[in-house]
Amino acid sequence: MSSSRFLYGANVHANGVRHHYLRYGGAGQPLVLAPGITSPAITWGFVAEALAEDFDVYVLDVRGRGLSQAGPEVDYSLDACASDLVSIADALDLRHPLLVGHSMGARHAIRAGKMAPGRFGALVLVDPPVSGPGRRAYPSSLSWYIDSMALARSGVGVEGLRPFTPTWTDEQIALRAEWLHTCHERAVIASFDGFHTDDIHADLPDLVDPTLLVVAGRAGVILPQDEEEIRKLLPAVQIQRVDAGHMIPWDDLAGFLSVVRSYLQALPVSSIAAPGASGDLP
């Protein structure tokens, strides 16, 4: 059995907030991974372990989740969270990092790409909600998140959370049960509301970084007509579908890694940082 590529967890102050992150690998081009609405960094550890074969991976606890700053004083808006991605890359001196965002994190990545054109080596947008003003609602309900978080705060175990993710393994559910209570309810509500009030489609024509859209074929989040609209707004985008639910790596880790690695490894040299161009080890 191979040893873990996990290096350490640490905090960094950026954009006025304390952010916690986990680092894996330590060599290769830096890759920042921004998880979804109720996914602390540790729950993406198995994905980071795999990506760290090729990249220097930084998995973020998005503000209001995991060990990052949370509370009534924290701004959980799309603009604030997108600014975090740029500010964290600057604070850690990550040169031309790749930016991979899942679901909510992908929406953050889109806005960050608009805010700081050319700052990232590439954007990988994994099944971002395409809801917004005047558009169909996001397929998951807010109560799904609120109810599962309430159970986690009460100390529920695997069986209590199984109805929310019935296809997950016991190990996956157990990790979620351990960490879900760290997701601040106000942060989750603000992000969910933003799925319906923030217009990320308006940002797409302004993206200049190479962009890959990974669509979960069995999730219903991004439909074929959405792909067509996205292609019109961002003609340079590449789109790959994976036959999986919204949490793609949980259903098909090999398929997810295949499309992401193939895209990133085919990037032009201008998108690739010099060797060792990541932040230093502590």
The appropriate CATH architecture is 3-Layer(aba) Sandwich
The radius of gyration is 17 Å
CATH-level-4 superfamily name: Alpha/Beta hydrolase fold, catalytic domain
Helix content: 25-40%
H/E series, N to C?
EEEHEHEHEHHHHEHEHH
Structural class: alpha/beta
Strand content: 15-25%
Strand order of the largest sheet: 1-2-4-3-5-6-7-8
Form type:
globular
CATH topology: Rossmann fold
Tally of structural domains: 1
Largest sheet: 8 strands, mixed
Question: Total number of helical segments?
Answer: 10
How many distinct beta strands?
A: 8
Mean pLDDT: 95
Quaternary class: single chain
Assign the CATH class: Alpha Beta
In the predicted model, the low-confidence regions spanning at least 5 consecutive residues are none
Cα distance spanning the termini: 27 Å
Describe this protein's structure.
- With 282 residues, the protein is α/β, with parallel strands linked by helices.
- The chain is globular and about 50 Å long.
- It is 35% helix and 17% strand.
- The protein has an eight-stranded mixed β-sheet with strand order 1-2-4-3-5-6-7-8, with helices on both faces.
